Amino acid sequence: MTLKYKGYCGQILRINLTTKKVSKQLLTDEHVRKYLGGNGIAARIMYDEIKADTDPFDAENKLIFMTGPINGTRVPFAAKFGAWTKSPLTGLFHDSQVSGLMSAELKYAGYDGIVFEGSSEKPVYAWIDDDSIQIKDAVHLWGLKTTDTCSAILQELGDSEIQVACIGPGGEKLVRYACINVGDHRVLGRGGLGAVMGSKNLKAVAVRGSGSVDVADLNGLQRFIDDTYDKVKKHPAYIRYSLYGTPGGVLGEATLGISFGTKNWREEYFDGWEKLTGEFIRERFTVKDLACPTCPLGCSHVSSVKDGPYAGTVLEGPEYETIYAFGPMCGIDRLDAIIKANALCDEYGIDTISTGVTLAFAMECYEKGLLTKRDIDGIDLTWGNHEAVVAMTEKIGKREGFGDLLAEGSWRASKMIGKGAEYYSMSIKGLELPGHSPRTMRGMMLGYATSTCGGRHQDGRPTAEYAAIDRLEVKGKPKFVRDVNHMTAVGDSLVLCRFSERLYGFTLTQSYVDIVNLVTGIGLNLQELETIGERIYNIERAFNVRCGIRRGDDRIPDRFFKEALTVGPAKGEVASLSTFNGMLDEYYEIRGWDRSTGIPRKEKLVDLGLEDVAKDLETIPP
Amino acid sequence: MRQSSDKSIFVDPSKCTGCHICELVCSEHHEKNYGLRKSRIRVTSIGNTIRLAMSCRLCKKAPCVASCPRDALRQHEDTGTIVVDENKCTGCKWCIGACDFGVIFFHPIQKTPIICDLCGKDEPQCIRACQKEAIQLITEDAFLSQIRKNAAEKLTKSIGEAK
User: Does CATH place domain B59-100 in 3.40.50.300?
Assistant: First the structure.
């Protein structure tokens, strides 16, 4: 490899599933300096190679697996692996990250990433074993749930330490929010990446590598790691994380009375919250503490249901978002039922957030008389009916009966139901909202509306507004949201766990610079790293602009402007449309995007070294 | 008098989170880069609930040493670690088959066995890096007394609660 910088393998695999042709693309120094890794490189490939009119399920759509320079090393929180594609929910740029050894294994095999192109006629899986790349028959695996798929492949290949990413029946049946599972309970969860994999007839990807990853400054890196370990040990938030994981957040949200979206976001304070906390889980359900590779704290906890109708269900989780989506959103205060629904989602390979939020949507439509009991297969979708929620989750995974409609996601389903059902789809750009409040956190409101992926919390981030800054403050928030966008773009390029943000920074800091330089030797300064983040976010935006996204699409559901909270500590709080519009104006202004259209201005793109993109967007109608 | 060879690596499965830090720091220390298959300690995972880092047990009658047809393996007098003479070793993997614990690994490039050497004169890096204090280099006496203490605490606590 000719790449000058460390941390990279220097090449990307291209696997064409139509022709079964495999080729290698070399990374260049310039590529790395401009786009850094995972997110940046994948966004550039998407912009260059996926057309505006390509349907996400067309063979021309591409599914990109990508790592970053730190993956495979001991940098704390460096165990993420990412996938990118045009989402079947949003029709836009989308990415998702998952923990585990997949990124390390892929790099040890010698590849920074894989671009899957085309579509196979029959079900196949890819087997990457160092230099040997095989496209293997998967007809016998089609129809298998995710854990069975993984174990069948491990048995077939004869090594239990191979990393496997696969889809379940949900991905095969093109559930629009199907995920890609990596191992048993870890998923590339959001945006329907698994459905794209299913549309390509790609059941799984198995990877084993015997090589290694070099870094530029090993001694410096060791000091950085020791320092990080020290800080983690003393950090109160991390101490809570290691005990309660993400569900540890429920207590704080209930105290504030925000974010625990209840009955389809009508409210944000849920009466049964005390039975859904991290503390409650640890006391009643936790049987083992786990950590992702490289993680000094370990926020993962294995739950086991010991009695009741769901006895015998064991899984890693449930995470906060799953508790939110199946719990208060559906009016359910039973963790055993939530764990069961989570396990079903994992087995069928569907996103817990979109599944739960889509079910909450259906429950409200049923309550409002927009759906009859006949429409919903006689299943009584009333708030709190956990049996109905569990039964309907399985139907979604199978695309059976009413589940077939819900498998389209709440936004498309609302269009098909009509009668004003759109109001009840708690989604942005077609992607269902996670459990962080756009109604009561001003930065989150703007972050959601402008996220290139729609309703998710990985471009705008809620953490600072919970922990460090005034959530109701408007002044300075547009700039803060922009800066957070650049942190996430860089973080997803490295590819770094988001829970490092309390330590490395909510926005880009010297810590991120140190990580990049110690591992790669590129020698960037903070301003240059900031520019990389901005470049990446603009490429994503440009991709979406070509797909038709304009200012009018950058919004949050009307409910948050129209319905004030009526219960809990935040009673009376509501979002304001004029405040929102003012913040959006300011955000576009700071970004150098046109205020009336939301299209990045030519000067901004040229400044970022994206002359070709500037030229493309010149001819785009406003 | 006790010798350093009376100490072994003990890993507490209730503390091990399967974070792989021990493997990465092992590769970092010995290879100056990162590769899980170049590590002399390996995390074994079974299902959702079992994670256990495993490395050389420093057997008193080491079957790996006895098995080598070329006498390429010997046991270090002081530390009890297994030393591989790379000039004699042919890479036949017989020692790997002889190990009852699956903790002799095969270096993917050098094509010779790699075995935990307790990091020579340094403190074992896996112990230093483990953030859950799950790995210890101690005598079996010390290990057992810890277990007895924990068990006794549990027992007396349950008696207290029952009363």
Answer: no
